[in-house]
Amino acid sequence: MSEQQPAAVAATYFDALAQGDVPGAMALLAPEVVWHQPGANQFSGDHVGVDGVGRLLGGMMEASQGTFQLQVTGTAMINGELVAVPVRFSGSRDGATMDMSGVDLLTIRGGKIAKVHLFSEDGAAEDAFWG
C-alpha cells in the first residue's frame, strides 16, 4: 500500500466530518475498527466496531448538546499505515466549555480506518467536560 492511500483515506474522513457527513465518515471505518478514547470519563476506553464507534460519537453529540466540533489544524503526517492529524476540538453544555488542541492518530489498512488513537492537550479538562 502506498503512503498516498492512507493520506487520501484520512483526508476523505476529515472532509466528511467537516461537512457533517457522518455516514460518509463512518463508511471509512473498518468493520472491526478499534477506537481508543483517552481519559477517565464516561466515554473513555475502547470502542469496537462501527456500531460501537457510532454509539460513542452519538453519545458525545448528545452530551455536548449538539455542539461538539472537530477541525483539522495542520498537515497530516504519514508513516506507512499511520496518519497523525493535528486537530482542535470544542463543545459546550450547561455552561461548561471545552476548546483544545489534540492529535488524531489513524491506522489505515486496506483503505479503511482500522484503529483510532486520540490525544488531547489537557486530559483533565476534557475529563471534567465529559464527566
Automatic annotation (TrEMBL):
CDD domains from the UniProt entry: NTF2_like
SUPFAM superfamilies named among the record's database cross-references: NTF2-like
Domain SnoaL-like positions: 12-115
Gene3D superfamilies: 3.10.450.50
Alphabetized InterPro entries for the sequence: NTF2-like_dom_sf, SnoaL-like
Protein name per Swiss-Prot or TrEMBL: SnoaL-like domain-containing protein
A Pfam match: SnoaL_2
